[in-house]
Every structure is written in C-alpha cells, then in structure tokens.
Amino acid sequence: MSIIGTIIVGLIVGLIARAIKPGNDSMGWIMTILLGIVGSFVATYLGSAMGWYQPGQTAGWIASVVGAVILLFIYGMVRDKAN
Q1: C-alpha dihedral over 76, 79, 82, 83, to 10 degrees?
Q2: C-beta of residue 12 within 8 angstroms of C-beta of residue 40
Q3: Which InterPro entries match (predicted)?
C-alpha cells in the first residue's frame, strides 16, 4: 500500500478508535492519524505473526481499531501522568 493509502487507512482507523473509546480525547488530526497508523501496523504485524489472519481480511481492520483504541488508552494515561 502506498504512503497516501496508509495515511488514509490510519485516519479512518484513528477516527473509529476515538469514536469507540469513551472520554474526552483532545488531540489533533496529526496525532489521530499517527495513533491509527501505529495501531494498524502493530495489529497487522501481531495478527499475521500469530497466524490469526492474513493482511486484507476484515479481522485485520477490527484488530487495527482495537490496537488504536489500546494506544489511545496508553496515550491518555501517559498524558494524564505528565500533567
């Protein structure tokens, strides 16, 4: 997938993750895209490495959203601890 495609998928996954996760996440578009991209890459790598699914399957999208939600929780805890 191209860089532009990866950014678009990251944006979609990041927005879905922010919609699913409860609470107020006041972060910009760039951070949403970055968390979505990282969540997608981590979930895709782990799922493929464990043999749970192949790249491009629906399970990969679901795992990408779950990975991004987990990263949002971690980001929120780190940000709250810093304040």
Answers
A1: -90
A2: no
A3: Transgly_assoc
* b/e 17-27 (16+ beta carbons within 10 angstroms → b): bbeebeeebee
- Cα 45 from chain centre: 13
CB 13 within 8 A of CB 40: yes
Could you tell me the pTM of the whole model? 0.76
Are 63 and 41 contacting, i.e. CB atoms less than 8 angstroms apart?
Answer: no
Structure tokens at 21: 């996760």
Structure tokens at 16: 């879905």
What are the structure tokens assigned to 38, written together?
A: 């990282």
